[in-house]
Amino acid sequence: xxxxxxxxxxxxxxxxxxxxxxxxxxxxxxxxxxxxxxxxxxxxxxxxxxxxxxxxxxxxxxxxxxxxxxxxxxxxxxxxxxxxxxxxxxxxxxxxxxxxxxxxxxxxxxxxxxxxxxxxxxxxxxxxxxxxxxxxxxxxxxxxxxxxxxxxxxxxxxxxxxxxxxxxxxxxxxxxxxxxxxxxxxxxxxxxxxxxxxxxxxxxxxxxxxxxxxxxxxxxxxxxxxxxxxxxxxxxxxxxxxxxxxxxxxxxxxxxxxxxxxxxxxxxxxxxxxxxxxxxxxxxxxxxxxxxxxxxxxxxxxxxxxxxxxxxxxxxxxxxxxxxxxxxxxxxxxxxxxxxxxxxxxxxxxxxxxxxxxxxxxxxxxx
Length: 367
Hints:
single chain; elongated
């Protein structure tokens, strides 16, 4: 995955360099700087105290990011076209004249398309899909297990309270035996979570065999307070390199790779977390679908099913193309290192937009 990081930064640099030519010469670098600051709003909006300004910053950051992604595709195709013109004998000056006349118009059209996609994407991310997956486990359970799975809720400045109310109601309707949450809780502070009433609603999530959660990489962004918020919610068993068992299954929750690195804690060998009772199924919650760590290559027993999130199934195009290249299993039920592994698209989002993907709440029916 890390091999793609220079490529991503290279593409962003290319998009930034090309966006300068949309602005008049006098404002070229100022315009490019403004675009950069708008994208940065995705990362720094949580530091803003005023709720209205925080919402505006997040919306601007999301729209700008999607605009740049689509602008990147346009620039690549446009440069190929200009290159063909050059090979056919058009002078460089003619290409430059065409670029100066047409690119601002193309940029306006792409911006209008981005805003339209943003409005469509808001609806797609709000109206999550619900479906069930039947799966036969290697270790047969004592009874058919119904386990609800959701990940990447990403409470943020514009996450509607009504959506969390619907999630709570959906879980009541599904009536699962247990509920698994695989990390990335919030992009706002614990104080803001409580102020918006998310704490009261979240505490209503429950199941007979328990509600289990692991942490995600966003819990590692200097946001220990949200980890404590989860730990103190009262209805959640937070697993950070821990394993717990009941009469019907065992579940292990891993510390996310980013959290382990950021907090200097490391990740315990999975061997040390393997349950002693091998007669009941063993589930694994690990936010990033990287598969097993190198230190876990010689396990005496593999988990019966692992659950991850993180990828958001790409969330929007063309980011989905990059996600599909980076991850061995970007979405759905597959196999990683011999372990049946499910990667969820998440029930929330980082940036409030989905294009070509859907938020989801999944019910596993396990025999």
